[in-house]
Design brief:
The structure is a single chain. The protein has 1085 residues and is mainly α. It has 51 helices and two strands. Among the domains are: 128 residues; 142 residues, de novo design (two linked rop proteins); 79 residues, de novo design (two linked rop proteins) (Up-down Bundle); 224 residues, Leucine-rich Repeat Variant (Alpha Horseshoe). It is 70% helix and 1% strand. A two-stranded antiparallel sheet has the order 1-2. A hairpin with a 5-residue loop joins strand 1 and strand 2. Helix 8 packs across helix 10 and helix 44 packs parallel to helix 46.
């Protein structure tokens, strides 16, 4: 095989095509022992600069298709990448060979059919030649191809393929392959010479009866329609021919409707062509009517010709989206011809959307969403302008667009309701075996579709509430009486009912929901079988969870619903309990005050009744469900005012009685035998109790947890934490570093983490007033810090909890200056030992990294002076750690480091006594490191803060009291200092030398321009950023790269603005935003 390879690569010898076929055969045979060597020979041959000279031998003599394709590939590569350097006679030779080969192969019908794939590849190669040669060096190409097409229908068929490929290459695929100028030239040439091409297409469409030729002509025409001059479409008989001759013929129907859809998608078409669009629309209606009259089901046609139905949906949606006004404008009165035509088209579209195909439905849904939003917005603008008629109906003063399409909208509502997809709140689904199970993964595509359908139904409800309500109640009645009972129908109906929450007036909502909830509760009682009950239960829970406004206004319904949820909490069917707890939490958050005040007709507030029944209610719930339940009740208690009566603390004590009893029991056992705290079952129970407390702490409101923490938990909590820490240290001392991975140590660390999370939540949710913060700082923090800091220092690095750093950051951010005296002790305990853990590499201890720099940021923001009350060596550690952070490739860490540095520099500028020493020690080091990350390509995402920090550092240089050239920073010693030197002049030279040394590809003039621009303080921050961006593009490393991250700030700001505008627009339409996602005007506090 090696000898064969040498022979093939010896271009001084005649080429042996048989040897090449042998190599190709080996390469394609996975069992061949020479496969790898054969592949290497093929690669070497293809990359050889003279390989293209062998192409004609290969194409003429090779027998196998694979070898011929290899020959074509060689030829195509030469044309793509070497065409310009080939001598003119060789270029002409290649061109003549390809043309001659194509003419010979495509003139014979049998050869054309048998060699279709090979000829298509040859066509592509010819198009590559055209991209180089036409029009300058081959001006007669279009004329040549048109004239040759008229000699033979078979030849014309392949010529159409070439024209189609040329159009695709120039108009569809040119972006990454051709220069803008070349693309522009080719487009102008095609436009200039299109008359000949169009005449050819028209001639074929009128005269030919050859089916393959007509098919390829239609497909070629499809590629042209998006760019050709409009006169060819609207001032000829093209549309008439397409509609009357080809749409009516089954074999051409699909390609024809695609062409018509392309015409329907054209935008900015002058009004003078509106009449042609009307003829197009009416012609399509007429031809489709012959296949299927309006209003009939498309199911049978879909089974017979799926592609046609799909393309017809694209035609109608495209036409209505871009040109509906040409049909609407002529309507003089309801029921006239133009109105009937509009209704017929919409009827076809709705019937198509009823077909059981997701792809087709999404095409229709996308337009219905667009249309209903447009109708709603035009109605709103019309009513705000106090005009009853809508634009486009001058002759019908009282006619609105809504009334014109009202007959069809009822059917649209039926389709939307019957095809509604599952919202994220529903956890119970039907699996592929037809069984009702708990959902395990979220279908993101379905969630996206739900959003569109939800918005569409909201618009449909606003457009005609009565019709929407009637349809929904009729469908619900059919479920209750059993005439249409099925899981799917009930699900889609209830998902639709839940999705229109907020889209109706309170009065309508009351009437509607009273009926719905009564019927669903009755259905739940009536149905037998676990699966049936689970389906009905999930729908009840979803619907009631979507209507907090109704529940708040109707206490008896709220009470009934909550009691029903408590029933569902005993239902062991998968997913029912989860959904019951989630729904209870939502309702508790949105209706919380209703549960803690005395309601009319009640002997006591509902929350007291609930607390009495709590052990029974939660008896069948799993641990994570119990946590959700406790969070919900705590959310209710948050509505109870924390007054002097102590009622809130008493209610909380009742809520926590079960976990508190369990806690006290474990503490009592631990007093007898501390080993209870290390037992796996004991730890599991502790974790459960701690998580319950953490959930309640976060939900019960500011200061609401003080009594529970102070009187029940705190002292024992610290004791348990210390015991667990001591036990871990013993196990690590006995077993070494590997002990950290054992089940015992992992369980103990899990309990420690939960303890720290509870303490973190307690500190974070203390009230923000000085008195509340003083209580935490005085009564809780001293003991807490003694235990936690001592443990953190003494524990082996692999067993240190990152949550300690999070807790400390939270405490400093919450308590601010009250904690300042403790900050030096905190830094002493955690700083150096954590840095040793995280600076060995960029991967280990990821959580420690994030929390450590969050802690540093909190110290800098709230206890700045404390940073300079620590020893000088530790101050250097602080700066080194910040530098290390912003050099990190993990974005979160790097961003935190930059933010911390910027805040630190701003704080130092405000403190002159500290500033001189800091600048002397760190100014030049920090400047060099910031310039390093600015230019290193790995930290483009930090450009916004790089720019802000650099501008600040250059701006303050004249305020620095100490001479920078005396600090002995990097490269400073090498700079000779002239008499009368200033910091500004020194720094300009310093930065210029630094940049010039780092980037030798930059000229001295470029370096000087950059440095002077940096010191130009007339530039505001945006101008300074532009200056930096220009410099980075000049730096060779950034040339030709994707530098989008340099504009990240602007793009993010634009995105945020768009999101805010979109949210504002959605909030302006009642019902568009899920009630649980709306700003909390419903919190009822």
């Amino acid at each position: 095989m090696e000898a064969v390879g040498q022979k093939l690569l010896d271009f001084s010898q005649p080429f042996d095509v048989a040897a090449l076929e042998q190599v190709v055969q080996c390469m394609n045979d996975p069992k061949s022992p020479h496969q790898r060597l054969a592949n290497q020979i093929m690669v070497a041959l293809q990359q050889h600069q003279d390989a293209w000279t062998r192409a004609s031998d290969i194409l003429e003599q090779a027998a196998s298709p694979q070898t011929k394709f290899f020959g074509l590939q060689i030829l195509e590569d030469a044309i793509r990448y070497r065409w310009k350097i080939l001598p003119k006679d060789q270029r002409e030779g290649i061109k003549s060979y390809i043309v001659g080969k194509l003419l010979s192969m495509s003139s014979d019908e049998l050869t054309l059919r048998q060699q279709r794939v090979f000829i298509n590849k040859m066509d592509l190669v010819l198009v590559q030649v055209l991209k180089h040669e036409w029009p300058q060096n081959w001006p007669s190409f279009i004329t040549d191809i048109v004239n040759s097409s008229k000699t033979s229908e078979i030849l014309c068929e392949n010529n159409m393929t070439i024209l189609k490929l040329l159009s695709e290459e120039v108009f569809d695929f040119s972006k990454d392959q051709l220069t803008e100028q070349k693309t522009k030239t080719l487009k102008e040439s095609l436009n200039h010479e299109f008359t000949q091409i169009f005449q050819l297409c028209e001639f074929v469409l009128n005269k030919s009866t050859h089916v393959p030729l007509l098919t390829i002509t239609l497909q070629t025409l499809l590629r042209f329609l998006s760019w050709i001059p409009l006169g060819f479409i609207f001032e000829t008989d093209l549309i008439k021919i397409l509609v009357t001759k080809f749409l009516a013929t089954g074999v051409f129907r699909n390609d024809t409707i695609s062409c018509l859809s392309e015409i329907a998608q054209l935008r900015d078409v002058p009004a003078q062509y509106d009449g042609v669009y009307v003829q197009l629309y009416m012609g399509v209606l007429n031809e489709v009517g012959k296949i299927l009259p309006p209003g009939n089901s498309f199911t049978r046609l879909f089974d017979h010709d799926e592609i046609f139905v799909q393309r017809l949906s694209i035609f109608f949606t495209s036409f209505f989206r871009h040109h509906i006004q040409v049909i609407e404008r002529p309507i003089a009165a309801p029921g006239d011809e133009a109105h009937q035509a509009l209704l017929a088209g919409f009827t076809y579209l709705v019937c198509i959307s009823e077909v059981d195909d997701d792809g087709i439905f999404k095409i229709c849904l996308d337009y219905v969403h667009f249309f209903t939003r447009d109708l709603y917005m035009s109605e709103q603008s019309s009513s705000s302008n106090q005009m009853s008629p809508l634009a486009g109906f001058p002759s019908a003063a009282r006619t609105t667009r809504r009334s014109l399409v009202a007959p069809v909208m009822t059917r649209v509502r039926h389709v939307m309701i019957s095809k509604m997809v599952k919202p994220s709140e529903v956890l119970i689904v039907e699996d592929e075996n037809g069984e009702i199970v708990r959902e395990t993964t979220k279908d993101t595509e379905a969630l996206s579709q739900y959003k569109t359908m939800h918005e569409t139904l909201v618009y449909l409800t606003h457009l005609n509430y009565d019709d929407t309500e009637t349809i929904m109640l009729e469908k619900l009645t059919a479920q209750v009486d059993g005439s249409e009972w099925s899981w799917t129908r009930l699900n889609t109906l209830c998902w639709a009912i839940g999705s229109i929450s907020g889209a109706m007036s309170e009065e309508n909502e009351k009437r509607f929901l009273v009926t719905v909830i009564k019927d669903l509760l009755g259905l739940c009682e009536m149905k037998r079988g676990k699966d049936n009950k689970a389906v009905v239960a999930s729908n009840i829970m979803y619907v009631v969870g979507q209507y907090p406004r109704f529940l708040r206004a109707h206490w008896k319904f709220l009470r009934t619903v909550v009691n029903k949820l408590f029933e569902f909490m005993h239902e062991l069917h998968p997913g029912v309990q989860d959904m019951a707890c989630d729904t209870f939490l939502k309702i508790a958050q949105k209706c919380r005050r209703k549960f803690v005040v005395l309601q009319a007709g009640e002997a006591r507030p509902f929350v007291e009744e609930l607390l009495d029944e709590l052990p029974r209610i939660v008896s069948d719930l799993e641990t994570h469900q119990v946590h959700t339940f406790y969070e919900a009740v705590a959310a209710m208690l948050a509505a109870e005012p924390a007054d002097a009566s102590g009622r809130k603390d008493a209610l909380l004590a009742r809520l926590m009685s079960l976990p508190n009893e369990a806690w006290k029991s474990i503490m009592a056992q631990a007093a007898q035998d501390v080993g209870v705290l290390f037992d796996a079952r004991g730890i599991k129970e502790l974790v459960k109790i701690l998580r319950t407390n953490a959930k309640v702490c976060r939900a019960v409101g500011p200061n609401g947890f003080n009594a529970q923490m102070g009187s029940v938990l705190f002292q024992d909590l610290l004791g348990v934490y210390a015991a667990h820490s001591q036990r871990i240290q013993q196990l690590v001392a006995q077993g070494g570093a590997l002990a950290v991975k054992t089940a015992d140590v992992r369980a103990l660390r899990g309990a420690k983490k939960e303890t720290l999370r509870l303490l973190d939540a307690f500190v974070e949710h203390a009230a923000g007033d000085d008195a509340s913060r003083a209580v935490v700082a005085t009564h809780f923090l001293p003991q807490l810090l003694d235990v936690v800091l001592a443990d953190y220092q003494a524990t082996a690095p692999a067993a240190r909890e990152a949550e300690v750093l999070s807790l400390l950051a939270t405490a400093i951010a919450k308590l601010k200056h009250l904690l300042a005296p403790s900050v030096p002790a905190i830094l002493e305990a955690v700083f150096e030992c954590t840095l040793q853990m995280i600076t060995k590499n960029f991967e280990d201890f990821p959580e420690h990294r994030v929390y450590f720099f969050r802690l540093l940021q909190a110290v800098n923001d709230f206890c700045f002076e404390a940073l300079f009350g620590i020893p000088q060596a530790h101050q250097k550690l602080v700066v080194d750690s910040i530098v290390w952070a912003f050099k990190h490739t993990e974005r979160t860490v790097a961003d935190t480091g930059l933010a911390t540095l910027f805040a630190l520099l701003l704080n130092i500028q405000e403190n002159p006594p500290i500033a001189a020493g800091f600048y002397r020690s760190f100014y030049l080091v920090l400047l060099q490191d910031i310039l390093a990350v600015l230019t290193d390509r790995l930290h483009k995402f930090g450009f916004k803060l790089h720019a802000a920090i650099l501008r600040h550092m250059f701006a303050i240089v004249d305020q620095i009291a100490v001479p920078l050239w005396e600090v002995g920073g990097p490269n400073a010693a090498a700079v000779a200092v002239p008499p009368g030197q200033t910091n500004s002049a020194f720094l300009k030279d310093y930065v210029a030398n630094l940049i010039g040394t780092s980037f030798p590809n930059l000229s001295r003039a470029q370096v000087v321009e950059f440095v002077l621009g940096c010191f130009d303080m007339s530039k505001d921050l945006p101008a300074f950023k532009k200056h930096l961006r220009d410099f980075l593009v000049n730096v060779k490393e950034f040339a030709g790269e994707d530098n989008a991250d340099l504009f990240l700030e602007e793009s993010l700001a634009k995105t945020q603005l768009q999101q805010q505008q979109e949210l504002s627009a959605r909030l302006a339409v009642p019902g568009l935003v899920n009630p649980h996602e709306r700003p909390d005007e419903m919190a009822d506090l």
